[in-house]
Design goal:
mainly alpha
Length: about 70
């Protein structure tokens, strides 16, 4: 990852964190364990599946291009 890509990732992480925080009930942010569970839930529900879908499509496209 280039230095500029690392900076962009950090900017996106900050923005995503702010959005997820606004959408997390305060009672789910009381302890480190609560926070970890909330982050995991958000990742599984909102982020992870879309990232996995994007990456799998990229891989499929690369595979199809190689076979042509």
């Amino acid at each position: 990852m280039t230095p500029s890509e690392k900076v962009r990732v950090q900017e996106c992480v900050q923005e995503l964190s702010e959005i997820l925080y606004r959408n997390t009930p305060l009672d789910k942010c009381q302890t480190l364990e609560d926070i970890e569970k909330s982050v995991r839930e958000h990742l599984l529900e909102s982020v992870g599946s879309k990232m996995a879908f994007f990456l799998s499509n990229k891989k499929l496209k690369q595979t199809l291009e190689k076979s042509e």
